[in-house]
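Final report, closing paragraph on structural work. Over the funding period we assembled a curated collection of sequence-structure pairs, and we close with a single example.
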Amino acid sequence: MTAERAVPVRHRAGTASGERDPADRTDLTRGPVLRRTVSYALPVAASSLLQQSYLLVDGAVVGHYLGSSGLAAVGAAQGLVYLLSTGSYGLAGAFSIRIGQLTGAGHDQRAAQRALAAGTVFCSLVGFGLTLVLAGPALSAMGVGAAVAQDARLFLTTYSAGLLAVFGLTAISAVYGGRGDSRASMLLLGLGNVLNAGLVWWFVGPLELGLTGAACATVGASALAAGVGLSGLARQRGGRPGTAPTVATVRRELRTGIRIGLPITGQHLVIGLGATVLLGIVAKLGTAVLAGVTVIVRLELFASLVFLALASALSVTVAQNAGAGRPERGRTALAGCVRLTVALSVPVSVGLVAARDVVAGLFVADPAVTGVIGRYIAITYPFFVCYALMVVIHGYVTGLGRTTIPLVCTLLSFAAVRLPLSALLGDRFGVDGLIWAVVVGWLVGLGYTVFAVADGRRGRITALGRP
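Its predicted structure, as stored:
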């Protein structure tokens, strides 16, 4: 993979006159809207698959060279890493939408990009400060043993010192994504993952740098990939050239980004904190159930990968067309994506339910654990289409800038319904009760999402409009 492929110089957001090339694959405001949306989604799905593959490599390297204690330390740190990253996720998601609008309208993007850069630096500094102050108490509150906690804190401190590189790569990828160039975004993130896999082996193995080396590998790979991405952005034009950005225009873009991004950050926080609570509920049911749920999380991530990518693509499609003053294309894309989601999710569900014993056996041989996995698939996957539809429709409302809808949905379906039901039904009915809580959460989430979108059609949920 070369730097030239990671950021194709042929991509232009506009011509000198401000008009976009009708044949430009990044222009989601023209051509068959569903085909353009799916074409955008494919590289996103490939990027997610590559990310999951890297995580497997990373775990294998750490486990091989540092043993179970190293794996335990990284595992203990991962939840805190996710929480540290929520601000960056919210900011990147917000500016992907905003840059999508500006791209659709053909407007200059420099003020938005500078606002994103300022926000990224701020999130990095805050994340580093929080790690120094709270990493120790947080690990202690999680009940992590002293030796593992010490290693996890070392990993977190080293990692957080390089958050600017990690968050910077996320931000640069968001710029490419907002412009409609998911292929460049995929290649950029893929470059980071490949570099990361190589560096983590080199640092942890031959150089024997331990967990410090594992953290440095992520930071170093992110910095190198971000440098490639920045060089590509410097060679591209972001919309029709306008007046130079001022402090006032950058501040205005930053306020817009914060308004869109805060609900995204809140949603990630709810998921991260809720997952910690759910882990405690599951742990009460025994080691076999906990092991089964660990496998289920990975399985569900792979099953959902295509639909998460489709949601991301739909979000950018809607944002670009809102900016171009063509909201009807966004609605057409939504209708097509809903049909496609049903057409894809039903065979996935049928196949997994029919082959649930085989699927469970691919991950583990323990009959107690495979029984939990098989039972989960049998109960939940007939309803998987509900989850897939909810995810895809969230992409639509996010593209409109109405990011509070996914946040409220997460609060309602996950925090208010699934977590209490998991505790209540798990105590009373065991594993089956825990599993049915998942189904109820999906149904409530889809019901609220459909209601919110229907409300919007009556005029109470509207697009942000043209920039």
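The two ends are 36 Å apart (CA to CA). Confidence is low (pLDDT under 50) at residues 1-18, 459-466. We thank the funder for supporting this effort.
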